[in-house]
Amino acid sequence: MTVSITCTDLTLRFPVYGVDAKSLKKxxxxxxxxxxxxxxxxxxxxxxxxxxxxxxxxxxxxxGLIGHNGSGKTTxxxxxxxxxxxxxxxxxxxxxxxxxxxxxxxxxxxATGLENIRLRGRIAGLTSKEVEDKMEEITTFTGLGPFLAxxxxxxxxxxxxxLAFAAATAVEADVLLMDEWIAVGDAEFQKLAHKRxxxxxxxxxxxxxxxxxxxxxxxxxxxxxxxxxxVASEVVDIRKLDELLARDAPAVAQIA
Amino acid sequence: MQTATHMLRTGRRGGMFQLQMALRDLRNSFGRIGxxxxxxxxxxxxxxxxSILGPFWITLSMGLMVLGIGFVxxxxxxxxxxxxxxxxxxxIVFFGVMTGxxxxxxxxxxxxxxxxxxxxxxxxTFVWRTVFRNMINLGHHLVIVVGVLAFYGYWRTANIPLALxxxxxxxxxxxxxxxxxxxxxxxxxxxPQIVISVMQFAIFFTPVFWPTDRxxxxxxxxxxxxxxxxxxxxxxxxxxxxxxxxTYVVLVSMALIGWTVTFAIFARTRRRIVHYL
Lengths: 256, 277
Prior knowledge:
The structure holds two protein chains of two kinds.
Chain A: E1 4-17, H1 24-33, E2 44-58, E3 62-66, H2 73-81, E4 88-94, E5 97-100, H3 113-123, H4 128-142, H5 157-170, E6 175-178, H6 187-202, E7 206-210, H7 214-220, E8 223-228, E9 231-232, E10 236-237, H8 241-246, H9 248-255
Parallel strand pairs in A: 3-7, 3-8, 5-6, 6-7
Antiparallel strand pairs in A: 1-2, 1-4, 8-9, 8-10
Chain B: E1 6-10, H1 15-31, H2 33-47, H3 56-76, H4 81-105, H5 108-111, H6 113-116, H7 124-151, H8 160-187, H9 191-205, H10 219-223, H11 226-238, H12 245-276
Helix pairs in contact in B: 1-12, 2-7, 3-4, 3-7, 4-7, 4-8, 4-9, 4-11, 7-8, 8-11, 8-12, 11-12
C-alpha cells in the first residue's frame, strides 16, 4: 500500500455560531419576528477557512504548514484527519492517520496516565490486547514512571505532552498530523520526540506539521506550504523557506 | 488494527449522498462497537473511581430509593407493600434507565467534542457510548429487580422472554430520543434544560410511583403517554400482568417513526455537528 495525501480544490466553509445563534429563544424569536421565514444565516457567520487548496504528498514527505494565526493551518489538519468534510473538492488520504492536534484528545483529566493510554489506544483502533502489548513500550517512552498511576489533572503541561505524544505515536500510523504544541516539553523529551518522528517518517510515512517556528520546520520538514486567509501557496522545498517567508512582507505592510 | 486505511471526503451534496454518508457512519460504528463499549465502561469507572463499592454504588443508592418510596407510598396509598414494592422497584429502575439514556444523550456530542474535531470516528460511536453506559447501569440494577421479584414471590422464568422484548423496545426508543437530544443540544444550549424538565414532568405523569387503578377515570393520561407504554412493556410481564396489544403497536410504530425522523435529521446535520460544538 502506498501512503499518500491528495487534496483537490479543497474548499471548506463553516458556520461560526455566536452566543446568539446558540440560543433557542433568539432562534424562535426570529421565526416569530420574520413571520416564519427564518433567515438561514441569521446570527451565524459563515467563514471560508480554506479556499481551493491543492496538495499532493507522498511517502517520505514532511510538510511544514506556515501562516498567520487564523490562516487555516489547523483547519487543514482537521480536514486531513477526517473531522471536517469539504464543501467543495476532495480529500483523499491513503494510510492510517494519527492526529496530534490537541493535547486533550481522548484525555480524561480525572483518569490516571495508564487509563488514558488505554483509552487513547482504543480510540486509535487497537484492541484491548494490542494496547496491553504496547503498554510497556509506551510507559517507558513517556518517562513518567510512577506518575502514570496518578490522575492526569495533576500533570504539568510538559508531562501531558509526553503522555499524549507517547500514546499517539505508539500506534503505527502512516500519516501523522501535528499542530505546533510539539514544542512543549523539555530538551530531553524533544530529543526523544525528534527521534521518534524521524523513525516514523523513515517507515515511509507522511508528516504534516503546522508551526510558526522556522527552526522547527528546518528540523522536521523537507517541504513547506504557506496559507494566507485559507489560500494555499504551492508546495516548495524547505530550502526555499526564507523565500516563502519573505513573501510575507508586502502583505503585512499592507495591513500596517 | 481496524483503523481505516483509506479516507475519501468529497464536497458532494444532496439528500441521497447525505443519507449514504449517514448510513456509512452507522455501519462504521458497528464495525467498532467495541470502542463504544470501552468508552462506556471507562465512564462508569471514572464516575466511581476510588470509591469503596465502585459501580455498586448505583445498586445501593437505587436500592435505598426503592425501599424508601416503596414503604412510604404503600402507607400513603394504603396498599399492600407486598404488591406495591415490586411495582415501584421495577418502575423506578426501568424509568430511570430510560430517562438516563435520554438526559445523558444531551451530552453525547458535546462531551466528545475533542475527539470529533480531530478524528474520523463515526458519530454513532458516541451515541452507543451513552446507550451502553445506561445499559451497564441497568445491569447493576438487575440485582435489585431479581432480588425484589424473588423476595416477593413474583419471579416466573417464563415471563422473562416477553420482558426482554419490552427491554429491547425500550432501548430502541430511548436511543433515538437520545440521539435527537444530542444533535439538538449541540446546536442549542437550551435543549438540555428542556429535556431534563420534560423528563422530570414525565416521571410524575407516568405511573412509576402510583398504581394505574387510581387513575382509571383518566385513561387518556395512560393511553397517550408514551412513557407508560414503554414502562408497561417491561413491568407488565415481570409482574405477570397482561400487556395490551396496543402497547406493542404504539412502541413499534414509535420506534419506526422516531428512528426514521431522527435519522433523517442526523443525515442532514451530520457534517455540521462538529462545527456546532
